[in-house]
User: Fold this.
Amino acid sequence: MCGIFGCVLKEGNAAPLIHASLKRLEYRGYDSVGIATASDGKIFLKKDQGKIDEVHKIINLDDLPGSIGIGHTRWATHGAPLKVNSHPHSDCTGEIMVVHNGIIENFMDLKNELENLDHNFVSKTDTEVIPHLIEQTLKENPKLGFVEAVQESLKRLEGSYALAIISTKEPDKIVCARNESPLVLGINGKGVFCASDIPAFLEVTNKAVMINNGELVILSSEGYEIRKIQDFSLINREPITIDWTPEMAVKQGYPHFMIKEIHEQPETLRNTLRIQEHYLDLLSTFLDRANEVFLVACGTSYHACLAASYMFSKLAFLPTYPVYASEFIEQHGKSVNIDSTILAVSQSGETADTIAAVTVAQQRAATILSLTNVIGSTLTRVSRVYIGTQAGPEIGVAATKTFTSQLSVLAQLALKLAKKRGKVSQDEMDSLEENLEKLPDIVDTIINTQEEKIKQIAKKYKNSKVFFFLGRGISTATAFEGRLKLMEIAYIPSIAFPAGESKHGPISLIEEGFPVVFVCPKDDCHKTLIGNIMEMKARGAHIIAIVEEGDQEMKSLADDYVEVPKGIPGVLSPIPFAVPLQLLAYYIALGKGFNPDMPRNLAKSVTVK
Ligand code: F6R
Assistant:
């Protein structure tokens, strides 16, 4: 998730406005910043790695001539957060400048093709193929206008993008385009603006035009012109009035970042499916060769590791050991060695316990692999290979979208390894891959159809003094995560156990009305789980079940239930089944009058041991 902005002003300098607007998009990423403007038929460019304020102090982002320009604030996905990878990116001549939010999936093929045609690439980004592709299209079709050359080039891109492009060829225009990444226009008497998000221009106008997938827009001093990328047909769309305050706009109208991020999960899960095969392949090769594999993480990321240990075992027949990072050194510090492999999972990539565990393992010559949401973080620097989880910045302290993204990457990794090891039949593999692809829509359905119901359940149970969360098999991890979400934002003491273990002690707590949340996918554990529900019911527990749609048996046992679309394979179930638990925690916290974005005593990134 990056932020893009562009403006065509009727008069005055564009750069200070672009700078101010990028500041309002900084919540979308802050690894680097860059601005390019057009003036007197020339392009002017300033960019560097670092947060906007830091970069501005050194290179004065306001000091660029021209009333037309584009800007970018970056959340690194392809390529480290370095100056060379920061946007805008240009063609060989420096005459075409592009800012981009999204992921170009076929960039490697395009890059190879363009390099064979003597194009010179300087960055590691996917974005850089775009200006070169436009340059090449113009070279091959000298009669094409700049806008048509952009249109033709867009047809070759696969993946997601929101783009803003300027060029010396037609320096009075910005061409923008959208496929899957957000893009919106703003208009006032002084000019036209394009941005990733409304907050970028809300200070100067509340008149906005939403851009849809497959559309290209030409911005000029005359206003805006929307056309279809496919056939260049004209689209008429009038501006709408936005009545959000700037603060509401940053949260896209949601009251809290946490609920915004829960709702972003269909999109973030789609992004995780775009991870380059090459990295999955590399990581799975290391795992395949390992003598012993430790999955090391804290908190929510540990729950992703716990779920992953079931995925690796069931799909790839690889035993792995999930370990709390804060325990790793005590538990395995002396035995970890050159034959050990550590797969560390961390949203921030900065968690002190995780870094400490990895450092000890590295000193003992173990192989360090990692998954993180922050490219350029300490964890990426100490890892032999890492994969970015592509969830975009997570601002809510409670991890939500980064958890499901971690799970999706881990599932893809387990599948890759299974393929390598020939442990799963082709039919099963195809079905799992198909189901993984369906998950973004499934999560969308859960949010759309169950949120109201979850609000009611939250209202009913918000004054409970304690909660139980139970699941069997891989759902143990989901139950653990549901408990952590509720405890950390609603401050209700909660207990989670593998359901089978609950009868070995915890059940003594149960008395009339005690709320027990059961995670009940229709997997191999379904029958046994029913037995555990009966045990709880017999002692007066109130059962809140997260069930598969149409699971009459579970529904008849539950006092309250939330439904998840049916047919999800057990190994993938933590992704959709976690979502109702995130919503439950959120609405219980709200009902109790707490701010879920700022839970007491917690920090987003825990950098102390
Ligand atoms: C819970 C939560 C924490 C983090 C933990 C690890 O919602 O956010 O439990 O999961 O502090 O953080 P990372 O993943 O950044 O290492």
